[in-house]
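Subject: 8-amino-7-oxononanoate synthase

B.,
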Amino acid sequence: MSGGSDFSAALDDLRARALLRTRRIVETACGPEVVVDGRPLLAFCSNDYLGLAADPQLVAAAKQGADIHGVGSGASHLISGHYAAHHRLEERLAAFVGMEAALFFSTGYMANIGAITALVQGMEGTEGTAAVFSDELNHASLIDGIRLSGAEKRIYPHLDLARLSELLAASPASRKLVVTDAVFSMDGDLAPLPELLALCERFDAYLLVDDAHGFGVLGGGDDRGQGSLAHYGIDPARHPRLVYVGTLGKAAGVAGAFVAASEEIITWLLQRARTYIYTTGTPPLLAHALLRSVELIEQGASRRAHLQDLIDRLRQGLRPGLRRWRLVDSTTPIQPLIIGENGEAMRIAQALLDAGLWVPAIRPPTVPAGSARLRITLSAAHTVAQVQTLIDVLLELERQA
Ligand code: PMP
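Prediction pasted inline below.
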C-alpha cells in the first residue's frame, strides 16, 4: 500500500519531530574504516569494543566451523539442533565467568526475555506472586522481558539503591527479581553490583545482571575480560541467586548471548525459557567461532589497555574544550555526548558525516526527552590519530554551534 495508509500521519509526525529512524548501508566489514552508502567513513558507532568482528582469526574459525557443522542447525536445541560446538561453548563460557552452567541463546534480546520470563515462574500450585524491580535506564530487552513475564513491575530511579531497598521491603511478592544493566547502554556508567547483590541477599531476591557492554571489556585483577563481576571482584559461586547475561555480538565480535548461573537455574531455563526452546539453534559455526573469540578475549589484555588509553584520551581531549555539550561521566568505551534537543543532535551527526565521521545520534524514546546525544563508542581497533580527529572535529563543531 502506498501513501495515505494507516501509518502515513504517524510517520509524518515522527519526521516533523526529527524522530524518524532510518538505516545506512555498510558495504565493508565492521571496523573503524567503513564504506557507507558508497562513501568512506571513520566510524565511532559499533559495539565491537575489542576489534574482533572482522579479525582474521575469527573469520578462519567461522569457516572451519562451517566445514565441520555446515551452516544451519536444522532444528531447535531440544529437538536435534544442539551441536558439539554449542555445548563446548556453554561449558567454556560458564567456566570463564565462574558459574556452574550456561545456556547459549541466539541474541541478547532473546536471552533477557527468556531468562526473565522463566525466573518469575516456578511457583505452580502455590499462591505465589512475582515482582521484578528494574532500573529506569535498563535496556529495552529487559523491559520487554518484564512485560512478557506478567510479573508486577517496579521501576526505581537510575542507580537509586535507597529507593530499591524501600520497594523490596514493601513488596509482598514471594518471588523477587532485580534486573539491571551492568554497563548502561546509552550512558556507559556502571551499576554498583556489590551493593545490589547485598540488597538482593537481604531480601531473598534474585539478581539478573545484563553485562552486554561489560563482557570482554571489563576484567578483574588478572584482566582476562570476564566482565563486570570480575571487575568488582565478585565470586559468583557465593551467590546462588545471581544470574549473569553476557552478549556475544559486541566485544566477542560474533553474535548470540549466554545466560550463566547455577546448574539448577540453567536446568530450569531449559524447561521454561521459550526464546531458547522454540527457536532454531543458532548456526553452530558461530559457536565454533565464539570458542576462539573467548580465547582472544582472555588473551586480550593489550587490546583492553589500548582501548582504555583511547577512552582517557577522548575524555581529556574533549572535556576542557566543551562549553554547551556535556560528556557523560563514563569510564567505559561508551562515551555519550549530551546535546539536548533532537534536531540539534541530528544536525551535529550530519555535520560529522559531512566531515567523514560516523557517530550516531540517539533520541527519545531510546533516551529520556531532552537528552538527545551523540553516542560515541570506542574500539581497540581505533588508532590514537583517529580519536584525535574525532576530538578536533567535535570541538570545532561545538564552537560553530
Ligand atoms: N542488553 C543490552 C544492555 C544491550 O545494549 C543489548 C544490545 N543493544 C542487548 C541486551 C541485546 O543484545 P543483542 O544485540 O545480542 O540482542
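The radius of gyration is 22 Å.

T.
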